[in-house]
Amino acid sequence: MKKYILISIALGLIFGLPLAQAQETAQWITFDSSGGPGNGQHIVLVSGDDEYRSEEAMPMLAKILSEHHGFKTTVLFAIDPETGEIKPDHQTNIPGMEHLQSADLMILFTRFRQLPDEDMAYFEQYLLDGKPIIGIRTATHAFHYRDHLESRYAKYDWRSDTPGWEGGFGRKILGETWVDHHGDHGTEGTRALIDGIKERYDHPVIRGVTDIWGPTDVYGTRKLEGDVDILIWGQSTHGMTPDAPVKWEKSIMPVAWTKSYELEGGETGRVFTTTMGSSVDFESEGLRRLIVNASYWALEMGDAVPEKSNVDIVGDYNPTMFGFEEYIEGLTPEDYK
Questions:
Q1: Sheet order of strands, 229-236 included
Q2: What domains are there in the chain, each with its CATH number?
Q3: Which of 9, 62, 258, 322 pairs with 219 at a CA distance of 20 to 30 A?
Q4: DSSP state of 219
């Protein structure tokens, strides 16, 4: 990686490029539109969680959205500034947040981030503009300002008690913050209860979604905040394999919903949230289709969602099992192209 950075710097000096431009590919990755319904729209996918391998899942989703649906996509990563490598538990550095200025949709899959105020300014302006958001799994507790309580963005903290921001970004914008593991983490998976919502198959987000199962457990929720429309409920399973029986003795929980949000002085925006999601969960065709469909809906392109949207994986996808110590060391954004 250090050799790559030196080459990038050298190319920048040779061709007169600014250093930031010369190093761009070492910080984030962008996939141009291949033409299609999404042509002209830019989706920024922000990864950075400690456990569920968002750094693997987000590039895979970006390729699908670009190759099959024509969106321009940019993927941001948690980067160790000393090495330039992806380090999921580095909580204070996600280069490229300025890409949100040109984003038409943000897909957020972060956990407990403490980003500098200058980066959060791009994030908050995005919200003030009322642009749409898709939140995946740990996005309900996307921020944790335990070391920066003086920050004007400390109200985004998942445990915020700031008036009007109780529960932080997750509760106010997505509808819920972190509550608990309703399922037994590491021994139970999640079965989406889709058969019971056949009367809602006309909703563009769940059009063509016939089966979702993943080895990550069900998150607990309370009464969701805002004008929530629950699309899918989830049930714990006895075990972490696709054939594991449903654990009916446990209560069901909402695992996918839509709502709107609005900051004071800002515009109203659309939100889709799912508490499902890890790199291994996205081996589920149904879960991939849910996110692709939600992208169309969030961009007010619901009428363009086909009966069965193409979510075939582009290239290889060999996700790592979730875990705090499971991530692959030494990788850079270039490795996910």
A1: 28-31, 72-76, 42-48, 105-110, 133-136, 268-274, 253-262, 229-236, 190-193, 213-214
A2: 2-179+256-336 (3.40.50)
A3: 62
A4: B
